[in-house]
User: Fold these one by one.
Assistant:
Number 1:
Amino acid sequence: MPELPEVEIRRQYLETSSLFQPIQHIEVEDKKLLTTDYATLTNALVNRQFTGTRRVGKNLFVMTDAPDISVRMHFGMTGDLAYYHASLDRPRFARIVFEFSSGYNLGFLCPRKFERVGLVSDVDAYLRDKKIGPDGLDISLQELTDRVRRKKMVIKAVLLDQYVVAGLGNWIVDEVLFQALVHPAQRADILTDAQLAQLHDAIHLVLETAIRHEATYRDFPNSFLIHVREWDDSPYDDVEAHKFCPRCRTRIERSTVGGRTTFYCPNEQLLIQA
């Protein structure tokens, strides 16, 4: 599933390819992928231009030259973008295509049809209505502290709550907690100021690392917990060797915390009782 880093990479791709080109037509293969009916979508966007982007968590908003018209893209399980010349074959799974007067197209790829596109008139109002909190890369330490300490729940579940902080998925939260030396089952409301500062720093470290490496997990530093996970494209011949903490060599434990599969180091991520 595209996480915040993948969506940020798609945002950058769209910005460098598809801005300031009038839209002359929108081809939609499956109208069930739209959250706005097709006629309204085309009436609003034809002859308009994309002028900029904003990403909040896993939501990508594309601004237009009309102040009250933005496009929301949600990439579902496997969504992606493809910018290509109209003379070329349409990319596989490009079920929604924005056709520009420049002769180029932007395809919204929907392999599993969980992806969605629709219009938003006010991005901030949309975020409030959907209870989407500050983005993981934008949230301040004070905001994070205030939001986390309101919760008498395990910190893993709190960080996965998109209203607390937007864009942190399961593997990202495991990595953040590992880098911050915080146990995933630690109660959120008793975290110290130092632990919260470590969490804030770790959120930036993990997200910025993932974006820098274009979310190619095998390229992450050896000091990252993510290598414990058995990705299909794991580059390691000896997978068992990567089941140990890269810092202290303790065997990584796997359990269920907050209803989600969780990896952590039992030696360094200690559970502190209230």
Number 2:
Amino acid sequence: MSLSPDTTALLVVDMQNGFLDPAGSMARIGMPHAHLLPAIAGCERLIDGARDARVPVIFTRYVYLPDYSDGGLLPTELVPQMREVGALVRGTWDAEIIPALAPRVGEVVIDKARPSSFYGTQLEPVLTSQGIRQLVIAGVTTNICVETTARDAGQRDYRVHVPADACAEYDQARHDHALNTIGFTFGWVTSVESVLTHWS
């Protein structure tokens, strides 16, 4: 595994109040938010290591317009409870990245309304402008937004590295299955320690 700081970016996926805080929208609709909390410590270490190594840190937020006109099937038909509690509305506390991982001035934040960080966003032009060809992808949830982003990145020939201990899922079996899928076809499953070793 090669992770040159010159061609690598850290992508921190959807580490938002709505997913991780006990007062967030996912907890309010009955999702076991506590299962996602283990991703925080890993993401903190990766962010600190990336900043020390001058690796670009890019954050994503899963956000919707207030009327959910950009939401598609997920908040309107598949999980309508999201709309009922006002989940992840742009500009609200629920949609913001948790304070422990707050972006610094100048760090890129990509807003998206679908699981993939590439779909309908400016992520790829941002990566291209910085000569990025390798991505370390961390965050939540492993089986949905992390895996979907890893798939899209792998299909664009980015070298994808997913630290298993910096991701989390509501269900352990889905977490494990997602990592198996990523490691089989779309990239490499690694650890926070391994990534930091390469950056140091």
